[in-house]
Amino acid sequence: MKRRILMGTAIAFGIVATVASAQDLPPLQQKDTYTVGFPQMESNNPWRIAETQSFVDTAETCGWNLITTDAAGSAAKQVADVDSMIAQGIDVLFLPPREEKPLLPAVFRARAAGIPTFLVDRSVDPEVAQAGVDYVAFLGSDFVEQGRRAAEWTVANFDGEAGIIVELEGTTGSSPANDRRQGFDDFIAQHDNMTIVASQAGDFARDKGRQVMETLLQAHPDVNIVYAHNDEMAIGAIQALELVGRVPGEDVLVISIDGTRDALQAIIDGKMGVSVESSPFFGPLACDVMTRYAAGEEIEPWVKVEDRVFTIENAAEHIDAAY
Ligand code: AHR
Predict the structure, then answer these.
(1) Which of 40, 44, 48 to mutate to test the pocket of ligand 1 (most atoms within 8 A of CB)?
(2) C-alpha span between 100 and 103 (Å, rounded)
(3) CA gap 9, 28 in Å, rounded
(4) Are 153 and 89 in the same domain?
(5) Is 230 touching ligand 1 by the criterion CB < 6 Å?
């Protein structure tokens, strides 16, 4: 990972501030209650709703006066929401940045305002902003690893001669879309019997996933593997496949990431092969990390979330706890 030239980048993003070093991240006093900002990026899928709920459920036990907003799928609105939280004097910011680059100014402005900031579930451009310098830490999964595990399962379970793969990508410019693609594509590239014939963004949304799949099916009617960067797009793809008489789970392998209730049901129904977990339940972890930080502990730059893999072997066991 490259390191940025600190002052140059801050000026480029319109921030007039002395840029910090790792030793002088904004401190956090130990208090009974904290005003905490959680600017959610959108609420159009179960994953996002579960994540926001996890913060709401944690608020009382962690002493948070929680301010949440919904940017409705707009990175610009999410930046404005952070600005508004800074103006309201929040003590701590937990930010899930919708896209890697557009949210950089929000990170820098929170930093300049002396607000300890933790990136949650997604990250910003690592070549421009770093944990331990511009923000305290990143709390989240290893998205590259998730993509690689999805690819490993695909290679191990595909029983045809040649895999013809369509990939439905998440939001363009977001860290999970970039990393899940890299992890999957790199592993698939090592297998001569597998070809990714098309890769297109479906914005992590069910409807968009269905529409993109409908279009791609016209160009690639012989597809026999669909890899979606999240469950919502995978469910949309299943709908598109069924519309043209394909049988997901029989003549098309559907592979995905998240572990939502609908995905686990699709696995139980035999329509989806695997969903690599990406947990949205960040509230308790955020509380723990914030409490450690306020106590003066040094926080690891990446507080890594370990993920499980859901298949026909264990989907029924986990569906009641799913969201
Ligand atoms: O950042 C995590 C991803 O964002 C989840 O996989 C997706 O469902 C959500 O919108």
Answers:
(1) 48
(2) 6
(3) 25
(4) no
(5) yes
Please indicate, yes or no, if residue 38 is contained in any of the structural domains. yes
Question: Is residue 63 located within the same domain as residue 20?
Answer: yes
| pLDDT tens for each residue of 217-273 | 999 999 999 999 999 999 999 999 999 999 999 999 999 999 999 999 999 999 999
pLDDT in tens, 126-144: 999 999 999 999 999 999 9
What is the distance in A from the centroid of ligand 1 to the CA of 307?
14
- Please name the residue whose Cα sits nearest to atom 3 of ligand 1: 176
Number of domains in the chain: 2
Residue from 123, 204, 207, 227 whose mutation best tests the ligand 1 pocket (most atoms within 8 A of CB): 204
Res. 145: pLDDT tops 50: yes
For residue 268, being part of any structural domain is answered with: yes
The burial class, CB within 10 Å (0-12 / 13-18 / 19+), for 78 is buried
How far apart are the CA of 230 and the centre of ligand 1, in A? 7
* Global pTM value: 0.93
CB of 206 closer than 6 angstroms to any ligand 1 atom: no
Which residue in 161, 278, 144 sits closest to 225, CA to CA?
A: 161
Say if residue 51's pLDDT is above 50. yes
